[in-house]
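ARCHIVE CARD
Drawer: 12
Card no.: 0347
Subject: one protein chain, sequence and derived structure
Cross-reference: see card 0346
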Amino acid sequence: MTEDPTNTATSEAPWHKPVRPPAEELLQLTKTLDRCIAGFLQTRNTAKFGHWEAPTEARALSNLMIRNLEAFLLMARTDEVLAGPAWTCARSVFEHAVRIIWLLYPDDPFDRECRWLGFLADTERSHKLVAEAMQNDPASPDGSHHRQRADAMRIFREGVTAKLPAGYTPQRPPSFEQMLRSIDSAQMYRFYREGSQFVHGSMWGTSLYRKNLGTDAEFGDFAHTIHWLLPLRLCWFSLRDAGQILLDRLQVPSYDWGRIEKEVDQDFQRLTEALSQSKFTTE
């Protein structure tokens, strides 16, 4: 059984001493995605706030998606052995993107509002559950803040629901797999399952730090450039697809996705070519 390699910070590098500095082709791809983020935000921020709640919430959710994507890119620029925690960010980016798309998918704005009301009800329930958990813990505050938040959301939700035209009712969000099916993306569920392995700490997730079983076990940092390809693709598709529908629903000038997609594809091509030429090893 091998010992873990020494990869701790030093006095010269107190924050992080890279175990495996990122390949130049990987760095180039992160720079291109940074430009894409900047262009998307610049376009999105020209939108004016309207009276519809669904696109407003989707806009806020896109901020959370972008922050997770930026964290992912920061790890990619720092050290290739951070592929494991980067996967957790990639799964979040993907989940946020799908929620944005599902929320804004209907052409009818009232249908989108009904989906938003379902999101609001879910958040209301979450505050209630936290308040109950705090109430059952003698060491916690009484949870009144969360109960007040839940009550305020309920009052607002009921007020909006009462103003819906006849035939419209709030729609509770389905499971993530059902969301994907409803937006014609059922084939993408496998990537959510793969990303979940790193979030939940399964043996699949720990395979980046352990090889073999029993007395043949080896421990270390085994992540290499190739392990970044799939989560990078997932992040790019998430930003592109969620960004397109959000900008459309916000009714802002179109962002040139075609141009940036060509640049991203070229960067991915350079990275995969480098890998095929055995420039990087996974041994």
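Annotation on reverse: The chain is about 60% helix and 0% strand. The radius of gyration is 22 Å.
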